[in-house]
Amino acid sequence: MIAHRHRICGEAAGTAAVEFALIAPLLLLVVGILCDFGFAFRAKAELAESVAAGMQYATLASTNVSTTQVTTIVAQKLSLPSGNVTVSGPSCYCVTGTPAATTPIACSSICSDGSSPGLYLNIAATYTYTTQLPALSHLVNPTFQETAFVRLR
Fold first, then answer.
1. If we measure between CA atoms, which residue out of 129, 148, 130, 151 comes closest to residue 73?
2. Distances 75 to 44, 59, 81, 120, 130 between C-alpha atoms, Å
């Protein structure tokens, strides 16, 4: 009876190696995707931090702000190779409503609610993340975008 059982079940030697060989590619793919997600999250955070640095400079410089200087500061802080920075303004806007909506207006005009328009600067930065795993590069290459609308006065 015991001999018959060994013939049906076979030897158990090497089954762990076979199981590992079957599971290892899936395990490596999961680890690779998790690492890639971490790199993408880091790139998104770096993009947000660089726009925040430009916001801080624009706020401190107030009406003496230079769009080229803000662009330079954001680009220096952004160490991503293919990041794109756009700074527009300063321009005057009226902010009204809930949620707040901006309406461009001449700086010498008065807003519809009787207040003076504010001077604003718009900072935008984009970055297209390229995945580290070649198999995923055809599926997912997200473009991250951060924008800031800064009041100067």
1. 148
2. 14, 17, 10, 20, 19
67-77 vs 15-61: helix axis angle to the nearest 10?
A: 160
- Nearest CA to 56 out of 43, 69, 42 is that of 69
Phi-psi region of 97 (alpha: psi -120 to 50; beta: other; left: phi over 0): left
The model's pTM is 0.73
Cis geometry, peptide bond prior to residue 117 (ω within 30 degrees of 0): no
Q: Give the model confidence (pLDDT) of 71-88 as tens digits.
A: 888 888 888 777 788 888
Q: Which two tokens stand for residue 76?
A: 């220096």
Amino acid type, 12: A
